[in-house]
Protein backbone atom coordinates (compact mmCIF):
# COMPACT_ATOMS: atom_id res chain seq x y z
CA UNK A 1 0.00 0.00 0.00
CA UNK A 2 1.17 3.52 -0.71
CA UNK A 3 0.42 6.66 1.32
CA UNK A 4 0.62 8.91 -1.74
CA UNK A 5 -2.17 6.93 -3.40
CA UNK A 6 -4.24 7.09 -0.20
CA UNK A 7 -3.79 10.87 0.00
CA UNK A 8 -4.72 11.24 -3.68
CA UNK A 9 -7.85 9.12 -3.19
CA UNK A 10 -9.12 11.29 -0.33
CA UNK A 11 -8.06 14.45 -2.15
CA UNK A 12 -10.34 13.29 -4.99
CA UNK A 13 -13.18 12.71 -2.50
CA UNK A 14 -13.17 8.91 -2.79
CA UNK A 15 -14.01 6.48 0.01
CA UNK A 16 -11.03 4.87 1.78
CA UNK A 17 -11.11 1.15 2.56
CA UNK A 18 -10.68 -0.29 6.07
CA UNK A 19 -7.21 -1.54 5.04
CA UNK A 20 -6.11 1.87 3.75
CA UNK A 21 -7.25 3.59 6.95
CA UNK A 22 -5.53 0.97 9.13
CA UNK A 23 -2.34 1.30 7.03
CA UNK A 24 -2.26 5.08 7.49
CA UNK A 25 -2.84 4.85 11.25
CA UNK A 26 -0.28 2.08 11.86
CA UNK A 27 2.45 3.49 9.67
CA UNK A 28 2.05 7.06 10.92
CA UNK A 29 2.20 5.83 14.50
CA UNK A 30 5.42 3.94 13.72
CA UNK A 31 6.95 7.02 12.08
CA UNK A 32 6.98 5.54 8.56
CA UNK A 33 4.65 8.24 7.26
CA UNK A 34 5.89 11.81 7.61
CA UNK A 35 4.06 14.67 9.33
CA UNK A 36 3.65 16.43 5.97
CA UNK A 37 2.02 13.37 4.40
CA UNK A 38 -0.25 12.90 7.41
CA UNK A 39 -1.10 16.63 7.26
CA UNK A 40 -2.09 16.30 3.62
CA UNK A 41 -4.37 13.34 4.36
CA UNK A 42 -5.93 15.00 7.40
CA UNK A 43 -6.60 18.13 5.35
CA UNK A 44 -8.21 16.02 2.62
CA UNK A 45 -10.38 14.33 5.27
CA UNK A 46 -11.20 17.75 6.70
CA UNK A 47 -12.28 19.09 3.31
CA UNK A 48 -14.02 16.03 1.87
CA UNK A 49 -15.22 14.33 5.07
CA UNK A 50 -15.64 10.64 5.80
CA UNK A 51 -18.73 8.47 5.79
CA UNK A 52 -19.87 6.59 8.91
CA UNK A 53 -18.04 3.41 7.96
CA UNK A 54 -14.78 5.26 7.41
CA UNK A 55 -15.14 7.11 10.74
CA UNK A 56 -15.74 3.82 12.58
CA UNK A 57 -12.72 2.21 10.88
CA UNK A 58 -10.55 5.23 11.72
CA UNK A 59 -11.69 5.10 15.36
CA UNK A 60 -10.99 1.40 15.76
CA UNK A 61 -7.59 1.67 14.06
CA UNK A 62 -6.64 4.56 16.35
CA UNK A 63 -7.92 2.78 19.48
CA UNK A 64 -5.87 -0.33 18.65
CA UNK A 65 -2.73 1.64 17.74
CA UNK A 66 -1.58 1.00 21.31
CA UNK A 67 -2.64 -0.87 24.42
CA UNK A 68 -6.24 -1.39 25.49
CA UNK A 69 -6.37 -0.86 29.24
CA UNK A 70 -7.91 -3.53 31.38
CA UNK A 71 -9.53 -1.90 34.38
CA UNK A 72 -11.43 -4.99 35.49
CA UNK A 73 -9.34 -5.29 38.67
CA UNK A 74 -11.03 -2.11 39.95
CA UNK A 75 -14.15 -4.23 40.24
CA UNK A 76 -16.80 -1.65 39.34
CA UNK A 77 -18.38 -0.11 36.26
CA UNK A 78 -16.01 2.52 34.90
CA UNK A 79 -17.91 5.56 33.66
CA UNK A 80 -15.79 8.06 31.81
CA UNK A 81 -16.46 11.61 30.67
CA UNK A 82 -15.04 13.71 27.85
CA UNK A 83 -15.69 17.15 26.43
CA UNK A 84 -15.40 18.16 22.80
CA UNK A 85 -13.67 21.28 24.09
CA UNK A 86 -14.47 24.82 25.02
CA UNK A 87 -13.35 28.14 26.42
CA UNK A 88 -13.11 28.19 30.21
CA UNK A 89 -14.37 24.62 30.47
CA UNK A 90 -13.14 23.44 33.87
CA UNK A 91 -15.93 20.88 34.32
CA UNK A 92 -13.64 17.83 34.49
CA UNK A 93 -11.57 19.26 37.35
CA UNK A 94 -14.66 20.09 39.39
CA UNK A 95 -16.80 17.09 38.51
CA UNK A 96 -14.32 14.23 38.82
CA UNK A 97 -13.67 14.74 42.56
CA UNK A 98 -17.44 14.97 43.08
CA UNK A 99 -18.00 11.66 41.32
CA UNK A 100 -15.17 10.02 43.26
CA UNK A 101 -16.69 11.29 46.51
CA UNK A 102 -19.91 9.54 45.50
CA UNK A 103 -17.97 6.28 45.18
CA UNK A 104 -17.76 6.19 41.38
CA UNK A 105 -14.21 5.09 40.46
CA UNK A 106 -12.65 7.78 38.27
CA UNK A 107 -9.99 6.92 35.72
CA UNK A 108 -9.79 10.13 33.75
CA UNK A 109 -7.28 10.63 30.99
CA UNK A 110 -7.46 14.15 29.61
CA UNK A 111 -5.80 16.06 26.83
CA UNK A 112 -3.97 19.30 26.20
CA UNK A 113 -5.34 22.45 24.59
CA UNK A 114 -6.52 22.06 21.02
CA UNK A 115 -7.02 25.08 18.75
CA UNK A 116 -8.44 27.86 20.88
CA UNK A 117 -9.92 25.42 23.40
CA UNK A 118 -8.16 24.68 26.69
CA UNK A 119 -7.00 21.27 27.92
CA UNK A 120 -7.36 19.79 31.40
CA UNK A 121 -3.80 18.45 31.45
CA UNK A 122 -2.32 21.89 30.72
CA UNK A 123 -4.50 23.28 33.50
CA UNK A 124 -3.55 20.65 36.11
CA UNK A 125 0.14 21.20 35.30
CA UNK A 126 -0.27 24.75 36.64
CA UNK A 127 -0.08 23.09 40.07
CA UNK A 128 3.61 22.76 40.89
CA UNK A 129 4.75 19.14 40.93
CA UNK A 130 1.46 17.65 39.70
CA UNK A 131 2.28 14.62 37.57
CA UNK A 132 0.26 14.00 34.42
CA UNK A 133 2.26 11.08 33.05
CA UNK A 134 1.30 8.12 35.19
CA UNK A 135 1.87 4.51 34.28
CA UNK A 136 -0.99 2.04 33.96
CA UNK A 137 0.03 0.50 37.31
CA UNK A 138 0.01 3.88 39.06
CA UNK A 139 -3.40 4.71 37.61
CA UNK A 140 -4.95 1.51 38.90
CA UNK A 141 -3.20 1.84 42.28
CA UNK A 142 -4.42 5.44 42.73
CA UNK A 143 -7.99 4.55 41.85
CA UNK A 144 -7.96 1.64 44.26
CA UNK A 145 -6.47 3.80 46.99
CA UNK A 146 -8.29 7.13 46.69
CA UNK A 147 -10.94 6.45 44.05
CA UNK A 148 -9.61 8.87 41.45
CA UNK A 149 -6.85 9.56 39.01
CA UNK A 150 -6.66 12.51 36.60
CA UNK A 151 -3.81 12.15 34.15
CA UNK A 152 -2.76 12.42 30.51
CA UNK A 153 -2.97 9.49 28.13
CA UNK A 154 -0.48 6.80 29.13
CA UNK A 155 2.52 6.49 26.82
CA UNK A 156 1.01 3.67 24.81
CA UNK A 157 -2.68 4.62 24.92
CA UNK A 158 -4.04 5.49 21.47
CA UNK A 159 -0.61 6.77 20.35
CA UNK A 160 -2.05 7.46 16.90
CA UNK A 161 -4.44 9.98 18.45
CA UNK A 162 -1.60 11.64 20.34
CA UNK A 163 0.26 12.31 17.07
CA UNK A 164 -2.81 13.18 15.00
CA UNK A 165 -4.24 15.45 17.75
CA UNK A 166 -1.05 17.53 17.95
CA UNK A 167 -0.81 17.72 14.17
CA UNK A 168 -4.45 18.79 13.72
CA UNK A 169 -3.86 21.58 16.19
CA UNK A 170 -1.04 22.97 14.05
CA UNK A 171 -2.75 22.66 10.63
CA UNK A 172 -6.21 24.11 11.32
CA UNK A 173 -7.96 20.71 11.25
CA UNK A 174 -9.57 20.71 14.66
CA UNK A 175 -13.23 21.33 13.90
CA UNK A 176 -14.20 18.27 11.91
CA UNK A 177 -16.75 15.62 12.86
CA UNK A 178 -14.75 12.61 11.60
CA UNK A 179 -11.56 13.76 13.31
CA UNK A 180 -13.22 14.71 16.61
CA UNK A 181 -15.34 11.54 16.84
CA UNK A 182 -12.39 9.25 16.09
CA UNK A 183 -10.09 11.16 18.46
CA UNK A 184 -12.46 11.03 21.41
CA UNK A 185 -13.91 7.56 20.94
CA UNK A 186 -10.54 5.91 20.19
CA UNK A 187 -9.26 7.14 23.57
CA UNK A 188 -12.38 6.04 25.38
CA UNK A 189 -12.22 2.57 23.84
CA UNK A 190 -8.52 2.24 24.66
CA UNK A 191 -8.84 3.60 28.19
CA UNK A 192 -11.08 0.75 29.29
CA UNK A 193 -14.24 2.77 30.01
CA UNK A 194 -17.43 0.72 30.26
CA UNK A 195 -19.79 3.67 29.76
CA UNK A 196 -19.30 7.24 28.61
CA UNK A 197 -20.89 10.66 29.08
CA UNK A 198 -19.86 13.21 26.46
CA UNK A 199 -20.11 16.95 26.88
CA UNK A 200 -20.66 18.15 23.33
CA UNK A 201 -20.15 21.90 23.13
CA UNK A 202 -21.83 24.13 20.55
CA UNK A 203 -21.27 27.75 19.61
CA UNK A 204 -18.64 30.33 18.85
CA UNK A 205 -16.05 28.86 21.24
CA UNK A 206 -16.68 25.24 20.23
CA UNK A 207 -15.68 23.15 17.25
CA UNK A 208 -19.35 22.58 16.43
CA UNK A 209 -20.86 25.93 15.48
CA UNK A 210 -24.52 24.89 15.35
CA UNK A 211 -26.76 22.40 17.09
CA UNK A 212 -27.46 20.31 13.97
CA UNK A 213 -23.72 19.65 13.53
CA UNK A 214 -23.43 18.82 17.22
CA UNK A 215 -26.29 16.32 16.96
CA UNK A 216 -24.55 14.68 13.98
CA UNK A 217 -21.36 14.39 16.06
CA UNK A 218 -23.35 12.96 19.00
CA UNK A 219 -25.03 10.38 16.79
CA UNK A 220 -21.80 9.11 15.28
CA UNK A 221 -20.10 8.90 18.70
CA UNK A 222 -23.13 7.08 20.12
CA UNK A 223 -23.01 4.61 17.21
CA UNK A 224 -19.31 3.93 17.82
CA UNK A 225 -20.15 3.45 21.50
CA UNK A 226 -22.85 0.95 20.58
CA UNK A 227 -20.58 -0.91 18.19
CA UNK A 228 -18.00 -1.36 20.93
CA UNK A 229 -20.53 -2.15 23.68
CA UNK A 230 -20.11 1.14 25.58
CA UNK A 231 -23.34 2.89 26.44
CA UNK A 232 -22.86 6.58 25.57
CA UNK A 233 -24.91 9.62 26.58
CA UNK A 234 -24.31 13.08 25.08
CA UNK A 235 -25.02 16.34 26.89
CA UNK A 236 -25.09 19.26 24.44
CA UNK A 237 -23.91 22.50 26.07
CA UNK A 238 -23.79 26.14 25.04
CA UNK A 239 -20.31 27.47 24.27
CA UNK A 240 -21.19 30.81 22.69
CA UNK A 241 -19.74 32.55 25.73
CA UNK A 242 -16.90 31.36 27.97
CA UNK A 243 -17.94 28.98 30.72
CA UNK A 244 -17.53 30.36 34.22
CA UNK A 245 -15.35 33.28 35.22
CA UNK A 246 -11.88 32.56 33.91
CA UNK A 247 -10.00 31.37 30.86
CA UNK A 248 -6.37 30.30 31.22
CA UNK A 249 -4.61 27.50 33.01
CA UNK A 250 -3.71 28.72 36.51
CA UNK A 251 -6.75 30.98 36.54
CA UNK A 252 -9.01 27.99 35.95
CA UNK A 253 -7.35 26.07 38.78
CA UNK A 254 -8.17 28.98 41.08
CA UNK A 255 -11.77 28.91 39.85
CA UNK A 256 -11.91 25.14 40.37
CA UNK A 257 -10.79 25.52 43.99
CA UNK A 258 -13.40 28.25 44.55
CA UNK A 259 -16.09 26.12 42.91
CA UNK A 260 -15.30 23.10 45.06
CA UNK A 261 -15.54 25.37 48.10
CA UNK A 262 -19.05 26.39 47.03
CA UNK A 263 -18.36 29.57 45.06
CA UNK A 264 -19.43 28.23 41.67
CA UNK A 265 -20.92 30.18 38.78
CA UNK A 266 -24.38 29.14 37.65
CA UNK A 267 -23.37 28.01 34.13
CA UNK A 268 -20.54 25.81 35.44
CA UNK A 269 -22.83 24.33 38.10
CA UNK A 270 -25.45 23.45 35.47
CA UNK A 271 -22.95 21.56 33.30
CA UNK A 272 -21.38 19.85 36.31
CA UNK A 273 -24.80 18.74 37.54
CA UNK A 274 -26.09 17.56 34.16
CA UNK A 275 -23.00 15.58 33.13
CA UNK A 276 -22.57 14.27 36.67
CA UNK A 277 -26.20 13.19 36.99
CA UNK A 278 -25.86 11.03 33.86
CA UNK A 279 -22.55 9.60 35.05
CA UNK A 280 -24.32 8.57 38.26
CA UNK A 281 -27.14 7.02 36.27
CA UNK A 282 -24.78 5.03 34.03
CA UNK A 283 -22.81 3.83 37.04
CA UNK A 284 -26.00 2.46 38.59
CA UNK A 285 -26.07 5.02 41.40
CA UNK A 286 -29.44 6.63 40.74
CA UNK A 287 -31.89 6.76 37.85
CA UNK A 288 -33.52 9.97 38.95
CA UNK A 289 -31.62 12.81 37.26
CA UNK A 290 -33.16 15.53 39.44
CA UNK A 291 -32.23 13.68 42.63
CA UNK A 292 -28.72 13.08 41.30
CA UNK A 293 -28.29 16.79 40.66
CA UNK A 294 -29.35 17.51 44.24
CA UNK A 295 -26.74 15.05 45.57
CA UNK A 296 -24.05 16.72 43.47
CA UNK A 297 -24.95 20.14 44.89
CA UNK A 298 -24.80 18.80 48.45
CA UNK A 299 -21.39 17.22 47.87
CA UNK A 300 -20.09 20.63 46.78
CA UNK A 301 -21.72 22.38 49.73
CA UNK A 302 -20.43 20.00 52.38
CA UNK A 303 -16.80 20.36 51.20
CA UNK A 304 -16.12 16.65 50.67
CA UNK A 305 -15.39 17.06 46.95
CA UNK A 306 -12.88 19.79 47.79
CA UNK A 307 -11.15 17.34 50.16
CA UNK A 308 -11.11 14.74 47.37
CA UNK A 309 -9.48 17.27 45.02
CA UNK A 310 -6.77 17.94 47.62
CA UNK A 311 -6.23 14.19 48.00
CA UNK A 312 -5.92 13.85 44.20
CA UNK A 313 -3.39 16.68 43.94
CA UNK A 314 -1.31 15.25 46.79
CA UNK A 315 -1.40 11.72 45.41
CA UNK A 316 -0.12 12.90 42.02
CA UNK A 317 2.74 14.88 43.51
CA UNK A 318 1.21 18.37 43.40
CA UNK A 319 2.11 21.00 45.97
CA UNK A 320 -0.82 21.14 48.38
CA UNK A 321 0.23 24.61 49.50
CA UNK A 322 -0.93 25.83 46.07
CA UNK A 323 -4.40 24.48 46.78
CA UNK A 324 -4.58 25.65 50.39
CA UNK A 325 -3.32 29.13 49.38
CA UNK A 326 -4.03 29.68 45.69
CA UNK A 327 -2.00 32.90 45.75
CA UNK A 328 1.02 30.55 45.84
CA UNK A 329 0.16 29.44 42.31
CA UNK A 330 2.02 31.30 39.57
CA UNK A 331 0.95 34.82 38.68
CA UNK A 332 1.18 36.95 35.55
CA UNK A 333 3.25 40.15 35.66
CA UNK A 334 0.49 42.41 34.36
CA UNK A 335 -3.14 42.36 35.46
CA UNK A 336 -4.95 44.92 33.32
CA UNK A 337 -8.62 45.85 33.77
CA UNK A 338 -10.78 46.40 30.70
CA UNK A 339 -13.26 49.19 31.29
CA UNK A 340 -16.69 49.54 29.69
CA UNK A 341 -16.91 52.50 27.32
CA UNK A 342 -20.72 52.69 27.38
CA UNK A 343 -23.50 51.83 29.85
CA UNK A 344 -25.54 48.73 29.10
CA UNK A 345 -26.44 45.15 29.86
CA UNK A 346 -24.04 42.42 28.71
CA UNK A 347 -25.82 40.62 25.87
CA UNK A 348 -23.03 38.29 24.78
CA UNK A 349 -19.31 37.60 25.23
CA UNK A 350 -17.82 36.06 22.09
CA UNK A 351 -16.07 32.89 23.25
CA UNK A 352 -14.12 32.58 20.01
CA UNK A 353 -12.57 36.01 20.48
CA UNK A 354 -11.80 35.28 24.15
CA UNK A 355 -10.25 31.92 23.21
CA UNK A 356 -8.15 33.53 20.46
CA UNK A 357 -6.92 36.23 22.85
CA UNK A 358 -5.96 33.59 25.42
CA UNK A 359 -3.88 31.75 22.79
CA UNK A 360 -2.37 35.07 21.60
CA UNK A 361 -1.13 35.96 25.07
CA UNK A 362 0.33 32.46 25.50
CA UNK A 363 -2.25 30.27 27.28
CA UNK A 364 -2.48 27.96 24.24
CA UNK A 365 -0.29 26.79 21.37
CA UNK A 366 0.03 27.87 17.76
CA UNK A 367 2.66 25.21 16.94
CA UNK A 368 2.74 21.73 18.41
CA UNK A 369 6.12 22.28 20.08
CA UNK A 370 5.08 25.62 21.67
CA UNK A 371 5.45 25.94 25.44
CA UNK A 372 2.40 27.49 27.02
CA UNK A 373 2.43 30.19 29.68
CA UNK A 374 0.37 28.76 32.54
CA UNK A 375 -0.19 32.04 34.30
CA UNK A 376 -1.80 34.16 31.60
CA UNK A 377 -5.46 34.40 30.69
CA UNK A 378 -8.64 36.37 31.08
CA UNK A 379 -10.87 36.85 34.11
CA UNK A 380 -14.48 37.56 33.21
CA UNK A 381 -15.81 40.16 35.65
CA UNK A 382 -19.19 40.83 34.00
CA UNK A 383 -21.28 37.97 32.66
CA UNK A 384 -24.31 37.94 30.38
CA UNK A 385 -27.24 39.79 31.98
CA UNK A 386 -25.05 42.00 34.21
CA UNK A 387 -25.66 45.75 34.08
CA UNK A 388 -22.49 47.75 33.49
CA UNK A 389 -21.79 51.47 33.79
CA UNK A 390 -19.11 53.35 31.86
CA UNK A 391 -15.76 52.84 33.56
CA UNK A 392 -16.73 49.58 35.27
CA UNK A 393 -14.46 46.59 34.73
CA UNK A 394 -15.72 44.06 32.20
CA UNK A 395 -12.76 41.70 32.47
CA UNK A 396 -9.07 41.52 33.36
CA UNK A 397 -6.18 40.46 31.15
CA UNK A 398 -3.43 38.54 32.95
CA UNK A 399 -0.36 38.81 30.72
CA UNK A 400 3.40 38.45 30.85
CA UNK A 401 4.25 40.07 27.53
CA UNK A 402 3.71 43.81 27.81
CA UNK A 403 3.66 44.21 24.02
CA UNK A 404 0.58 42.02 23.75
CA UNK A 405 -1.51 43.77 26.38
CA UNK A 406 -3.03 46.54 24.25
CA UNK A 407 -4.15 44.21 21.48
CA UNK A 408 -5.60 41.81 24.02
CA UNK A 409 -7.50 44.58 25.80
CA UNK A 410 -9.00 45.85 22.54
CA UNK A 411 -10.09 42.37 21.47
CA UNK A 412 -11.64 41.42 24.79
CA UNK A 413 -13.55 44.71 24.77
CA UNK A 414 -14.74 43.82 21.26
CA UNK A 415 -15.89 40.40 22.52
CA UNK A 416 -18.38 42.12 24.83
CA UNK A 417 -21.69 43.17 23.30
CA UNK A 418 -23.72 45.57 25.44
CA UNK A 419 -27.33 46.52 24.87
CA UNK A 420 -29.88 48.86 26.38
CA UNK A 421 -32.64 46.24 25.92
CA UNK A 422 -33.70 43.49 28.31
CA UNK A 423 -31.45 40.42 28.03
CA UNK A 424 -32.64 36.84 28.32
CA UNK A 425 -29.92 34.62 29.76
CA UNK A 426 -29.25 31.87 27.19
CA UNK A 427 -29.71 28.25 28.19
CA UNK A 428 -26.56 26.37 29.21
CA UNK A 429 -27.86 22.86 28.53
CA UNK A 430 -29.14 22.59 24.96
CA UNK A 431 -30.09 18.94 24.82
CA UNK A 432 -29.50 15.37 25.98
CA UNK A 433 -29.09 12.46 23.60
CA UNK A 434 -29.52 9.25 25.58
N1 LIG B 1 -11.20 16.33 22.46
C1 LIG B 1 -10.47 15.34 21.91
O1 LIG B 1 -9.97 14.47 22.62
N2 LIG B 1 -10.33 15.31 20.60
C2 LIG B 1 -10.87 16.23 19.79
O2 LIG B 1 -10.71 16.13 18.60
C3 LIG B 1 -11.63 17.27 20.36
C4 LIG B 1 -11.77 17.30 21.71
Structure report:
It is built from 17 helices and 13 strands. Strand 4, helix 10 and strand 5 form a beta-alpha-beta unit. With 434 residues, it is of the alpha/beta class. The chain is 46% helix and 15% strand. The chain has 3 domains: 47 residues, Transferase, Pyrimidine Nucleoside Phosphorylase, Chain C (Transferase, Pyrimidine Nucleoside Phosphorylase, Chain A, domain 3); 253 residues, Nucleoside phosphorylase/phosphoribosyltransferase catalytic domain (Pyrimidine Nucleoside Phosphorylase, Chain A, domain 2, 3-Layer(aba) Sandwich), CATH 3.40.1030.10; 89 residues, Pyrimidine nucleoside phosphorylase-like, C-terminal domain (Aldehyde Oxidoreductase, domain 3, Alpha-Beta Complex). It has a 4-stranded mixed sheet, sandwiched between helices. A 4-stranded antiparallel sheet has the order 6-9-11-7, with helices on both faces. A 3-stranded antiparallel sheet has the order 10-8-12. Helix 5 crosses helix 14. The structure holds uracil.
Write a concise synopsis of the structure shown.
This protein is α/β, with parallel strands linked by helices.
Amino acid sequence: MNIIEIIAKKRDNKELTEEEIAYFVQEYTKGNITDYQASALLMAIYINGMNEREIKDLTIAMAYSGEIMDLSSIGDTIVDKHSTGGIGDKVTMILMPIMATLGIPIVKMSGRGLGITGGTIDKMESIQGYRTELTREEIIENVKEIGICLTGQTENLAPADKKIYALRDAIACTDNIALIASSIMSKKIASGADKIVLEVTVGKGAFMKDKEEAIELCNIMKQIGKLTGKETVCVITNMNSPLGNSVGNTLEIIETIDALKGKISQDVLEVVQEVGAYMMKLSGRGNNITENKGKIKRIIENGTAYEKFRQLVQKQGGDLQCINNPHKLGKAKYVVPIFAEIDGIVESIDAEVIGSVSVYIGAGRTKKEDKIDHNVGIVINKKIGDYVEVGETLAYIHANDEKKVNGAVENVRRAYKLTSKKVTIPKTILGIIE
